[in-house]
Amino acid sequence: MPNINLGIQIIPKSKTLDSYQLVDQAIAVIAASGVKYEVNPFETVMEGPEDELMVIAKKAQEAVLAAGAEEILVYYRMQIRPGQDVSMDDKTNPHR
């Protein structure tokens, strides 16, 4: 299965907890997964097989809720090329 890029933005809602600390819970799940990822100001982008990334994304959502978010909004963006890998480096290295 080829690698894809999956961007995930989780926006937690809480009347009492800090949003950034809640988002940090999602990033910790992604970091512990072992997949290649990059944290950006508005989303975190992961690279790997689609099925694996979707499982990680679900765990990240669950972590934010378990940390006390009352509600979350989740936005995904995916780049998929059938039979061909999608690489973050191919897209970003020319600009670094």
Description:
With 96 residues, the chain is α+β, with helices and mostly antiparallel strands. It contains three helices and four strands, in the order E-H-E-E-H-E-H. It has a four-stranded antiparallel beta sheet. The longest helix has 17 residues, at 50-66. The mean pLDDT is 97. Pfam families: Thiamine_BP. It comes from Cyclobacterium jeungdonense.
Q: What is the CATH domain class? A: Alpha Beta
Number of domains: 1
Counting helices, strands and paired strands, the structural category is: alpha+beta
Could you tell me how far the N terminus lies from the C terminus, measured between alpha carbons in angstroms?
A: 29 Å
CATH topology-level fold name = Alpha-Beta Plaits
Helical content (DSSP H or I, runs of 4+): 25-40%
- The helix-strand sequence is EHEEHEH
Report the strand count.
4
Query: Radius of gyration, Cα only, in angstroms?
Result: 14 Å
Question: Main beta sheet: strand number and arrangement?
Answer: 4 strands, antiparallel
> Strand sequence of the main sheet, in spatial order?
2-3-1-4
Looking at the overall shape, the CATH architecture is 2-Layer Sandwich
Strand content: 25-35%
Low-confidence stretches: none
Oligomeric nature of the chains: single chain
The global form is elongated
Count, helices: 3
Family: Belongs to the UPF0045 family.
Domain Thiamine-binding protein: 8-93
Protein name: Thiamine-binding protein
Organism: Cyclobacterium jeungdonense
